[in-house]
Amino acid sequence: xxxxxxxxxxxxxxxxxxxxxxxxxxxxxxxxxxxxxxxxxxxxxxxxxxxxxxxxxxxxxxxxxxxxxxxxxxxxxxxxxxxxxxxxxxxxxxxxxxxxxxxxxxxxxxxxxxxxxxxxxxxxxxxxxxxxxxxxxxxxxxxxxxxxxxxxxxxxxxxxxxxxxxxxxxxxxxxxxxxxxxxxxxxxxxxxxxxxxxxxxxxxxxxxxxxxxxxxxxxxxxxxxxxxxxxxxxxxxxxxxxxxxxxxxxxxxxxxxxxxxxxxxxxxxxxxxxxxxxxxxxxxxxxxxxxxxxxxxxxxxxxx
Length: 304
Hints:
The protein is an alpha/beta fold. Helix content is 41%, strand content 22%.
């Protein structure tokens, strides 16, 4: 059965971020992806210079109306990432709510892109829109530690803090929360990165149970862009296959990320071909050969 995603994210001419990081991997995994570019830039904003256009709320509305008039606005998922305009973000919320009325089973996956490492890289007026309007309609969110702290107003200094922050985010709306990275000390040593996940599950008897996981993956001594966009897309894909098993969905997602990053490093060092990196990296590493984190001796997934 066809599964269709509306992906509203950034687009760059050079590089792989936003929709250029998310759309192709989802298509490789069998999803139909309709993309709306929230911005169209020459390159990502980490460069010294960048040029381009920002899609306005009115322009987004026109695009969506065109889809709706042709009666092709039937989606199973909405995926959103980077944007720089509050009215645009509010229009996204309106679209998500309309799509959910048409399909109550629609799942909204939101990467609340606000900043990292203690500083924001979007306008500050986006913060209250995410907190008060976007997160409450989301089903799955993928903040980093800084974004999770911003959204809840609570600092994360311990594992207990991380659990409490995820519970606060649950109370805001989403049933699935993955804190994609944190500054907490890993149990496996300094060369690892700690992430957390939490999923509320409605049981057949009407009660709710919560599954929590702690993930430790090896750090990579390199800087990448677009990894958060790829992560959110892969979490969408694997929670689709494992909707009530966050542990397995995260194993698949983190393993994909590790594999893609390693292949990218190999390509940068000239150890693999461009074709291998741009096609086989996704086809083999993502679509056909997913390694469980537990298969790596140096990796470990802890759940409680």
